[in-house]
Amino acid sequence: MNATFDVLRKVTTATITTMLLKKGIRRCWMNGPKPLVFGGERIVGPAFTLRFVPAREDLATPESWAKPVSTRGAIEEMPEGCIAVADAMGVVSAGIFGDILTMRMKRRGVAALVTDGVVRDRVGVLASGLPVWSAGIAAPASVNGLTFVGWGEPIGCGGVAVFPGDVIVADEDGAVVIPQNLVEFAAHEGAQHELFESFIVSEVERGVKLPGLYPANEDTKARYETWKKNRR
Amino acid sequence: MNATFDVLRKVTTATITTMLLKKGIRRCWMNGPKPLVFGGERIVGPAFTLRFVPAREDLATPESWAKPVSTRGAIEEMPEGCIAVADAMGVVSAGIFGDILTMRMKRRGVAALVTDGVVRDRVGVLASGLPVWSAGIAAPASVNGLTFVGWGEPIGCGGVAVFPGDVIVADEDGAVVIPQNLVEFAAHEGAQHELFESFIVSEVERGVKLPGLYPANEDTKARYETWKKNRR
Amino acid sequence: MNATFDVLRKVTTATITTMLLKKGIRRCWMNGPKPLVFGGERIVGPAFTLRFVPAREDLATPESWAKPVSTRGAIEEMPEGCIAVADAMGVVSAGIFGDILTMRMKRRGVAALVTDGVVRDRVGVLASGLPVWSAGIAAPASVNGLTFVGWGEPIGCGGVAVFPGDVIVADEDGAVVIPQNLVEFAAHEGAQHELFESFIVSEVERGVKLPGLYPANEDTKARYETWKKNRR
Amino acid sequence: MNATFDVLRKVTTATITTMLLKKGIRRCWMNGPKPLVFGGERIVGPAFTLRFVPAREDLATPESWAKPVSTRGAIEEMPEGCIAVADAMGVVSAGIFGDILTMRMKRRGVAALVTDGVVRDRVGVLASGLPVWSAGIAAPASVNGLTFVGWGEPIGCGGVAVFPGDVIVADEDGAVVIPQNLVEFAAHEGAQHELFESFIVSEVERGVKLPGLYPANEDTKARYETWKKNRR
Amino acid sequence: MNATFDVLRKVTTATITTMLLKKGIRRCWMNGPKPLVFGGERIVGPAFTLRFVPAREDLATPESWAKPVSTRGAIEEMPEGCIAVADAMGVVSAGIFGDILTMRMKRRGVAALVTDGVVRDRVGVLASGLPVWSAGIAAPASVNGLTFVGWGEPIGCGGVAVFPGDVIVADEDGAVVIPQNLVEFAAHEGAQHELFESFIVSEVERGVKLPGLYPANEDTKARYETWKKNRR
Amino acid sequence: MNATFDVLRKVTTATITTMLLKKGIRRCWMNGPKPLVFGGERIVGPAFTLRFVPAREDLATPESWAKPVSTRGAIEEMPEGCIAVADAMGVVSAGIFGDILTMRMKRRGVAALVTDGVVRDRVGVLASGLPVWSAGIAAPASVNGLTFVGWGEPIGCGGVAVFPGDVIVADEDGAVVIPQNLVEFAAHEGAQHELFESFIVSEVERGVKLPGLYPANEDTKARYETWKKNRR
Asked: What is the pTM of this model?
């Protein structure tokens, strides 16, 4: 999988969505998670899912943080290199994690946190160095609006289904999920597509019109083959 | 529990929310489920939870209906007298159940269906006789927008947490969840409150002003004690 | 004012919005309040405003109902014939009033309740006989989501400004506010417009095409004058 | 086409969405249009599209109603039996049509009006007898929030694309669009499906469990073939 | 027009909205489009409109990009100096354009892209140098949620109507549309207003109180006249 | 109060929400106001409330800016060090204040502006130096969507109640309100909590696992006591 991940790290999330559309999958991009700051690297990793339900005052309390089924417990189960994906039901008024938890995740080698909810302690989370894609920031803790109920389950996040073992790719355009059985396809077909788009960019740079170029007609395809040979 | 349920059947959901507020619980009424038609009876029963995540084109297909983890499988597990509560994430463009499934639920003795999503086949669902609280109606099947992932789990529904074993009460004001350990309290304190409100109604009918009456001051409380004795 | 109100009772809210548009006013129809049941009469009356802010757990408690600034206190100040207009900020998860309060309002001669929030105790509110325009129904009490802060103030309701003394008209198309200084205009110009539309309806019934008819060209206007004379 | 329409009149919109899903089409049900009143018949007809853009105060005036490109002009172009489908961009605070226009549409033989916006003059529109599917009711006229720009164009309505010549079916579950080239398929395959569901209903009535029944396994399919023979 | 555009480049969108309000126009600022990055220049140009409707799986495919009515075809029709304004119905889960298309637009001399939808390939779009005002960023291509249907038509964008030939001004406060016949007025009255506000700023800097200053009373107006003379 | 404010300036809004939760208060963080730019200091001050209702065309005009009850009048009443909190009902299409008003506020020593609405003249507002937390930016003036009705009243802002005299704290995580009688508690308990979190951070840095650490078990508490002694 590592070699495939290396390939995927060079494929944009935009290209991945186009590859998945070829397989009939339109619902793969999460509507909500955005990078906390721009300028970071593209992150690739297997999904480690987290699930929240709404808060109920008798359950969602600071005391609940010490229970076995807690965000703390979940973090200690995260394998190195995974991307934690949290279903916060799009709630934007309670931060699922703050600086201490993201510090610990970074320490454990977690690759990134992706959520359709929000984080808290913006300054501290940035300082922790953990790349975060979220729907924003809020001051209150998760218990203010959410109850944590488990990890490793199928979840929804930003309007798409995420299953444990699916692969997540996240960059400045947001986060996409690749179904486990399409990872190889998305990586290799995606890499080909990136190469093709490099050619198209060079064509646009020299002033070629779009119709016939992109999508490519036979003539463009022929020029692409020549271009590929010449660049070797 | 049956005796308690008999008491609860005479307590409005409005009163139940007020009783739970006394215990610090504000998040117990589901925002979304409404009765499909008005005029039915109040329904009380233990929650049987169902959980959906968003559709993904490779998973949410008519073929998936034959899988072991399917809405069909779930229905056959529902105990008599339960209220099925379905977390549809508030999706209103895909009906979680249609007439055939509600017919089967009715046949199995399910007391009601409550969801923050919608149902399809309005005419047939009404004909099935199963009381339904939903966020409306849509023509498409669940697979058009949702993937069913399991039953008997903690869920969110209409912005509140529902755990298996919690008790649901639903009437014209919608549906509320009572945490398992507060069911006795809500029933008996609620019944007292209903009696008190009957007295208040009779006072308003004879023209008494609200301040001092509701909430009751000492004088009102005394009149209430007298009223209670006299009605025996 | 009573004579003007009698005229307004025969002018639809649809027509009133068209009359106000002639004066440059587009924001007069409240987006949110709908009749609790269809089939009632058109209601006209001066606005008695009520204002809520969001709940805060230390303020919005059942105990607060006994404070001088309470919904109970406000109701006892409502003059006969007024329409209570409540700014609930569009909150649909906490009922501003239930059956006891609407019973008392009816008893005091309040003409109607209009709100961009919701009511609770649907069955009891209907039984009280008070006409209600709301954004729906919820079981929880106001304190579950709202804090009452006063009456007789300028408010927003359903996206429009309402000032004490403005006139409210409500029918099956919802509720509109008429600025105090435009009430006479809206009533009398509106009544003329209703008469004109009766003529148009009769023309459509006999198969006249719309262009030239509505809006009316010179020929149509002439026919209208004849029609008016003949009906006397 | 008339024979096909007769078939479609017996196929529910729920079934049509399932048939279109077999062809990979998930986006065919309009999220927004609901019947103004329940209890009417299923309506089938070719789409006659209408398009609105937002109001601009210099354009959206009562005077604009007399322009050649006006809702009035559009109505006079509607062929008998068509279903007018209006893209109101989901605006719910300005009624696209009122009683006079729906009267004229009815008079011209228009089969129904479907919109993701709202209508005004609820009482009058119902009296006109034109079946209406809308997102509700508002008092203000279209010019209060919308500018009419044309008919016979591709439009969006309730989140789906509608092209002139597509076929619309509307019933209590809402309105669906069938792409022109799939109308025969949807009608005939849909009618088969309705027959099959009649059999399933009879099976559920006699207590058959869902797994293996719906979706049908080989045994169920065999019983269905027998059932079909016997009912002839 | 070029001279007028030069004037407009020094008038803020904030001032333009105030000028248009003097003419009764409130709906001119697009709610949605924001600059992709802050710090760019104010852009002025005539609107070149683009229109999308929702995706339907049989129409919105990568193959559709090669059709004559395609975004590619539209781009080749854009005149130098125009501002492309795309009605994406506020859809934020499918990017209408990515880097290749914005590169080509830049190459053709298009001044800017404004949309109530989103773009994809953030890094590449920024590299193309085309100024973009959008409602954000998404990875999926337009066909994932949208079908392109034409250019040069009246559209809605961000809640306002835009007609071909209207003038667009965009800066850090967003994008406004000026109706064609008010462009001269907005430019010259706006420039006067900017000068007046420079005076007001200098007055605030020296500690003058707001009442009487802004809006200006007679005394302030006199001081302004003196200030204007002195600065010449 | 000044000493308490100095303490609060070192307590994050995240910590304050946790302290208030200990007192049963969950609704204290405003959903909407975000810093106009990141990187500024935490601001603390007593709330000076401002209230808007929706615009009505006869009231919300540039002329209204000269009335005694105007935003201008309100600004001149703001005491030094206060934080202006404006209830704009979440309206994001009309800027409540622009550069001239924020300049004047800065000049008067106002500490910050917090609103669930938006500001206009982004460049000028930033130049004024007044720290602003808002829901974004828009070009139109307040009168385009709002009518100012008063100051010093209870308001709602971002879903929470704010009373004059409450204390506001705002930082990169947004703005929170502290009820007047809990200010001392929040400050001093909050400062203790910040110290404790510094210890936890150092523990996470040296690789301690979360369970038992945060929340702290007896062993962690003991280590904390030692850590506190050693740092003196």
From this structure: 0.97
